[in-house]
């Protein structure tokens, strides 16, 4: 997620990273004020910016393997907010490759 925001957000654009430990997992939120994420870019292997387009899909699969999820929302007035929720399998050492 961090590599994605650095690679796909114009230089000088503000960004925020927040990590919160929870009793049953953790939340990682990455928000930026860049151009946002086109809906078609969320498809596995799709990218309009010269990358493989797998970063968000890999993050989503890791989150789901732990019992968590990944969501993408538009930021106001522009940009994106990516929220990665890691489930208890991650915090208890039970995470294996998806």
SSE map:
Layout: H1 2-8, E1 15-22, E2 25-32, H2 55-65, E3 69-74, E4 80-86, H3 88-91
Task: Describe this entry's structure for a reader.
With 98 residues, the chain is an alpha+beta fold. It is globular, with a radius of gyration of 14 Å. Helix content is 22%, strand content 30%. A hairpin with a 2-residue loop joins strand 1 and strand 2. The chain has three helices and four strands. The chain has a four-stranded antiparallel beta sheet with strand order 1-2-4-3.
How many extended strands? 4
Give the rounded overall mean pLDDT. Answer: 81
CA gyration radius, whole angstroms: 14 Å
**Spatial gap, N to C terminus:** 17 Å
Low-confidence stretches: none
* Helix run count: 3
Q: Classify the secondary structure makeup into a structural class.
A: alpha+beta
Strand order of the largest sheet: 1-2-4-3
Order of helices and strands: HEEHEEH
Helix content: 10-25%
Morphology: globular
Percentage of residues in strands: 25-35%
Largest β sheet strand count, sense and barrel closure: 4 strands, antiparallel
